[in-house]
Fold this protein.
Amino acid sequence: MLKFVQSFLFILVFNFLLSEKLPNDIRWVVKSEEYEMICNQTYDLAKSRLKEIYLELDDISGKAIIMDLDETVLNNSQYQVEISRKGETFNMKSWAKWVNRSEASLVPGAKEFIDLARDIGIQLIFISNRMDKRLDATKKNMKSLNIFSEDDIYLLRLDRKDKKTIRRDEVFKGQNRMSKYGSYDVVMYFGDAMGDFEKKDFYNNFIFPNPMYGKW
């Protein structure tokens, strides 16, 4: 009887541990020192480059930095942990609920870079595939992390056809949503996927690791 109870308890504990085991991609982002180091290093390099740009330019008016949000500024690994524990994968319904919670954390190094950019006085433009109807929840999240500014520009997605290329073009030309701001010359890009960049100019493009989306 004792052996049976011990075996039963072992099975319960083993199954619990299995249920708590995260996939490698999520565990790497959540647990590894390497993830934190790479993000901090990338933002440190970006800060050095931004200082160079500032010294190179006579006037920073009309200059901007375009940044993606998710897995570039905002760390949504907790969302991935939660759906993984439920045996689910990414879906728009659970993602919308997560975004509305405004509980994403910071990608390591993001705040320090954003603070520097604001001190220099360069325009920050956030182009994200978050839906525009979740702009308030996104701003609330940014405020909770002490990285929100009324001076920033947000170009979130209106619908499936509203690609990032369209929104970047609006920035370059000062048209449509950008008509009230005017056009900007973008000097730096930040993102976690190739679609976040206008061209393969990695001197001014800064990419962050994101194995959780399955494209890495």
Notes: The chain has a mean pLDDT of 91. The radius of gyration is 20 Å.
